[in-house]
Predict the structure.
Amino acid sequence: MDKIKIHGGKVLEGEIFISGAKNAALPLICASLLTDETVTLTNMPMLSDIKAMNNLLEQLGTKIDDFDDFADNHPAKTYSYRTKVATSLVAPYDYVRKMRASYYVLGPLLARYGKCELSLPGGCAIGARPMDIHLSALEQMGANIEIKNGYIHADAKGRLKGAHIIFPGVSVGATCNVLMAAVLAEGRTVLENAAKEPEIGDLANMLNAMGAKIEGIGTAVLTIDGVDKLYGTRHKVIADRIEAGSYAVAAAITRGKIELINALPSTLRRPLQVLKDMGVKVTETERGILVDAKNCKLVGKDIMTEPFPGFPTDLQAQFLALMLTADGAAMVTETIFENRFMHVPELLRMGANINVHGHASAIVRGVGKLSGAQVMATDLRASFALVLAGLVAEGETVVNRVYHLDRGYEKLEEKLRAVGADIQRIKEDDE
Ligand code: UD1
C-alpha cells in the first residue's frame, strides 16, 4: 500500500486550486439514472470514490464517457452519463462495501423503475450509520421495503406517491436519496427537517435543470411536484468546501499564506469564523479565499460539529490538529457521528495533548511542538489531520493507508508541494 512521507517545518505559501466537490458529485452521478438522456458533469474531481461510483453505474447499464477538460484554466474531468435503460436494478455487496454512497442509486432506480435491490451498507470506522431515515421516507411514498440476506429489497409496485415527510433527524444522505425519488413521484412531496448542505442545493439545482420542480432549495423544507419525465443537462459541480477548509487549515497550521482558488466563502462561514476567532486573517478575494497566518499567534477556540450551516463534522479532525499548535485549550465536540476521534491516538503518538471524554468531546491543549512518527488513520478526514500534523512536526512523518486520502483529496501531494511542502508518495513498488 502507498504511503505519504512528510518532512515538517515548511511554511506553506502560494495558491491551491480547489476541485469539484466529491460529496456533490456522488449524488449528481446517480441523478443521471433518472433520465434516458445524457447528463454531463464538468469540474469533476479525479478521485477513487468517483471511479467506484462510475463502476457501479456501468454495472447498472450506464454508458460513461470521460474527457480531459479545463475548469477555470485548471485541468479537470468531464464525464457524461447515459442510461437509456438500466440493465440491472441491483447494487451488489462488493460495490456498496467499498463505498457507502452507493446507496444513492436507491432513490433514482426506485423512482424510474419502481424497484431496486441494494446491499445494506453496514457500519464504518466513524459509527453505525444506519439507513432507517432513507427507508422510512421511501415507505411513506408507497415503497414496500424488505431486508433479506443483507439486501434492501425495495418495490414501489409502479410509481412512487408524493407524501409529507418529516425527517426524524437531519441526514444529508436521506435528503438526497428521497429528493431524487420524489422528482418522478406522482403528486407533491414535502420534505421537512431536510439537510441544508450546499451539496444538496447543487443536486436540487441540477434536477430542476433536468425538468424537476423543486422549491425551497437551501432551506429545511423542500417541496417537490413530481413530473413524468426528466431530460439531459450539463452541470458544473460546485467547489469542494471540505477540501478548501482542509487547505485553509494547512495554511494556518504552518503559519503560512494560501489563496484557495475557486473556494466558495458562503459554504464555509463557520469554519472561516473559527479561523478568524483564533487569530488568522481570512479575506474573500476575487478568485476565492485568502488565508493568511503569517506571524500570527493563534489561540485555541471551542468547536462543535452540527448540520450545515453549523461547523462540519468533515472538518473536525483537521481543526483538532490545528488546536494543537494554538495557545491554550479548546473543547472539540462531535455531535454527528458516534466514533469520530480515531485520529486522536495517532496524534498522541506525535506528542499531542488531548483528552477524549466519552465519544462526544475532546479537550485539546496547545503543545509547543509535535514530532514526526509513523501513523495511520481509519478514515478520510482523519488521514488529512495526520498529514497536517506531519506538516508542522519535527522530523519525518509517514502516513500509512493512503487509499483513504485518495478517496477525497485530488492530487494531494502535488497541491501541497506547489505551496512549499516537503511531501512525497512512496509507491508500494518503491519499498
Ligand atoms: C454525508 C457525507 C459525509 C458527512 C455527513 C455529515 C457524503 C457522501 N457523505 O454522509 O461526508 O460527514 O454527510 O455531514 O455526502 N443517520 C441515521 N439514519 C439514517 C441516516 C443517517 O441515524 O438513515 C445518522 C448517521 O448515523 C449520522 C447522522 O445521521 O449520525 C448524519 O448522517 P448523514 O447526514 O446521513 O451522513 P451521510 O449522508 O452518510
